[in-house]
Every structure is written in structure tokens, then in C-alpha cells.
Amino acid sequence: MATQEMIAMRLEAFLNRAYKLDKRIKRPSKGEYYSLTRAEEKDNYQKELKTLKNRIEQAIEVFFKQAIDYQTEESLKVLGSLNAQAKNSNDVATVIEKGLLITEQFK
Asked: Which residue from 16, 34, 54, 78 puts its CA 20 to 30 A from 65's CA?
């Protein structure tokens, strides 16, 4: 099981890949994931979840604009769907894990 620190680092790495390709998006931070987990503890996390999901969606859109093959494109579509269905930090962590694998070429 990955610790919160590891998941936060992976989120930052995923978003950084998109940031390197398009500097117009906001610079990523591990704190975004921590904000979500803290809000979950207080059972008031919808705003943070929506914000993080929007950031991941932005990153996915940046990857779509790159020269990618068909399989990567289809994988990104699935990733976007998983992101849209995410309901908590565990779901977001799953999206990030898959996202890092799919976007390996943008390291």
C-alpha cells in the first residue's frame, strides 16, 4: 500500500509531465493531494475533489494535444473516464497510477 506521501509525489509527477508540455497550466504541488485527504477526514471534500479532478483533466487534455499513437489516445480516453468517476482520494490515486504508466513517454 502506497503512503500518502508517495501518492502525493506521483500526483505531482503526473501533473509535472503536463506542465512541462504546456506552461499555461498551474504548476503542480503535492499539497493539492494533501488538501483532499485532510478534507476527507472532515467529510467535506467535494470542493477539493472537484478541483483536483479538474487539474487531472487539464493534464489529460495537454497530453491529447501531443503527437501520440492510437493506443495512447484510447488509454487517455479511458483515463479521462476514470477521472470523471473518481469519488475519493483512493480513486484519484488509481487514476494517477494509470496516468503515470500511460504518459511514460512524456517523462
From this structure: 34
pLDDT (tens digit, 9 = 90+) per residue, 8-18? 999 999 999 99
Domain ranges of the chain: 4-20+28-106
The C-alpha cell of 77 is what? 480516453
Report the half-sphere exposure of 43 (CA within 13 A, side-chain side).
0
For 103, phi then psi, to 5°, come to -100, 20
Sign of CA dihedral 94, 51, 74, 14: negative
Q: Would you state the pLDDT for residue 107?
A: 87
Report which of 63, 47, 67 is spatially closest to residue 101, judged by C-alpha positions. Answer: 63
Q: What is the pTM of this model?
A: 0.93
Quote the CA–CA distance of 89 and 86 in Å, as a whole number: 8
pLDDT tens track for 29-44: 999 999 999 999 998 9
Complete DSSP assignment for 2-32:
--HHHHHHHHHHHHHHHHHH-TTSPPP-THH
The three grid cell numbers given for residue 72, joined into one nine-digit string: 495512447
